[in-house]
Amino acid sequence: MPTPETHAPTGVIHDIGYQRYTGPRLGRRYVVGSLYVHALRTAFGLGRSAKAKIFPWLIVGVVTLVAVIGTAVRAQIGEVLFTYAQFADALSWLVIFFVAIVAPELVSRDLRSGVLPLYFSRPLRRGDYALTKLVALVTAVWLLLGGPQLLMFIGAAFTLDGGAGAVWDEVLDLVPGLLYAGMWAVLFGVVGLLVASLTGKRAFAAGGIVAVFLMTTPVAGVLSVMPSQAVNELAGIAAPSTLVQGIGIWLFRDQLITFDGGVAGMPGDFGPVYGLFAVAFVAACVLLLLARYRKVAAS
Known about the structure:
The protein is mostly helical. The chain is 73% helix and 0% strand. It has 12 helices and no strands. The protein has helices at 27-43, 50-77, 84-90, 92-113, 116-120, 126-157, 163-196, 202-223, 229-234, 240-251, 253-256, 271-298. The longest helix has 34 residues, at 163-196. The relative contact order is 0.11.
């Protein structure tokens, strides 16, 4: 019988310098923190092209200019053009457009580019991704409204007569304004991010966000002229913007007493109803957002 030929091995293993990673493994908390910082920077176009910075910093410039004008008028003639809470109300329409641009940048781009599997290949849960993006958007909106309020406070603190007592009174006016700005940020942020998460096309997401806010406000206006007084007072819960205004009038009436609120009669005696409805509404939006990303992960 013929003997089988002996073949010499032809494969060669080359050592090209790969080494096992022996450094610290930072884990889930570090990933969440990095994602939050990245999302917050994205909201203001930081670390991106000049084109990405135009819109967010234009909005920042407008709200800052309004704050500077109010501070200058108060310093010159001693007249308060608007309280801190009224400042947030007066510029809330800018928040709509800010959210409409920023929310799609935070989530729609990731959906369209298909990078979510890369995110989830790390120790990052689906809920972590959604909640971190939401917290970053809420923070960005709060900074948009709260930053100019702090500027107004600093300007007032250096021009007030009455010493530490007057400054303390100013602090007591500032805190409700910052809390009220936080309400705007939470309501608008959760609605905007939920809508943006439904599509990978940024233009569609932006249009949907604007439509949700602008189309629900007339509904509240129609309900406010119904024959029933109870319906008039509850009309504000029909739209996110009037819902926030109703809660603001209920909690911070002294700071918003001269502001009409957009819907006559609200909230009347239904202030607690507005508060409970807002909590339930935010919770429902968060649950829908988490469900949306569980579906994205499954697909």
